[in-house]
Specification:
Length: 280
């Protein structure tokens, strides 16, 4: 059996340190759990698309984790896939390059017991960037090569309620890239898909695949239908007999409410708020 811990959406920043204490507490719990691997499933930053310093700060913050760490980017790290939420925060080559220059990779593959764990850059899906094609080719090769059950990690969920939902939204992967990805996942032994981004927790099975939404360590937003408003981390035990998932509550984690934090409309984005650096 192998244990993988998922930490999601810590939203760290050297200038806007609202969630720094939560991050430190989550790291302490993960270090005590001593899993085989830690996946940080995106949104490590608040304004990574526009800031070298934020991406560098997030990478440095990962050093608090003692187990092997695999980080994949979210929209707050490399920008949204188009059309996105804001025209000036769309993923582009410069933003991908910034992430790669600091983290070295935006995807990973690792063995975990008798399982295979894959992570991809969700923000490339539907981007049309050359890196999307490169990632597709890499994923095809990984999927084709594995006879082991596979857990796939990515920042955004593939869908909210149903794979055929067509609404263009920044909450999940859009229909066209989702359909292409699902077609390939169905041809491989993909058993679990874990994502972040929505800052709530859910665990559902769809067409034999278990879809896990990992909670954030930073703040809550009103949960999507069928999801729970939880903060924390996920421990996923991958064994021959199956998968066991547990949300681990982190003692002392502060349940920040995003709307309250942003002054109920006073600030559109966290990056617009007055600086409050984390303690040195
Ligand atoms: Fe997030
Ligand atoms: Fe996100």
């Amino acid at each position: 059996m192998a244990r993988v811990v998922v930490i999601s959406d810590p939203h760290l920043s050297p200038t806007h340190g609202f969630f720094w204490d939560n991050w430190c507490r989550a790291c302490d719990v993960v270090n005590r759990l001593a899993p085989d691997a830690v996946i940080v499933s995106g949104d490590l930053c608040i304004n990574g698309p526009e800031s070298d310093a934020e991406v560098a700060f997030a990478a440095k913050a990962l050093r608090r984790l003692k187990p092997q760490v695999y980080a994949i980017p979210g929209n707050h790290d490399v920008g949204d896939e188009p059309p996105g939420q804001e025209p000036d925060q769309i993923i582009d080559g410069r933003r991908v390059k910034r992430w790669l220059s600091v983290f070295g990779a935006d995807r990973f593959a690792l063995p975990a017991g008798n399982w295979r764990v894959l992570g991809i850059n969700a923000q490339l899906l539907g981007s049309g960037l050359p890196q999307e094609k490169e990632q597709d080719d890499w994923l095809d090769a990984e999927l084709a090569a594995s006879s082991s059950p596979i857990l796939l990690a990515l920042h955004k969920p593939l869908f909210l309620q149903s794979p055929d939902e067509a609404e263009i939204t920044a909450t999940s992967i859009n229909l066209e890239p989702r359909t292409r990805l699902l077609r390939r996942l169905r041809q491989a032994p993909v058993k679990v898909v874990v994502s972040g981004h929505l800052h709530c927790q859910r665990d559902v099975v769809h067409e034999g695949v278990r879809y896990l939404w990992a909670p954030s360590t930073a703040f809550l937003v009103p949960p999507q239908e069928g999801a729970e408003a939880n903060l924390g981390i996920l421990a996923i035990d991958l064994g021959e007999a199956g998968v066991r998932v547990e949300r681990i509550a982190v003692p002392g984690l502060v349940s920040y409410d995003l709307l309250e934090l942003k002054g109920h409309g006073r600030y559109a984005y966290l990056r617009d708020m007055p600086p409050c650096p984390p303690p040195a």
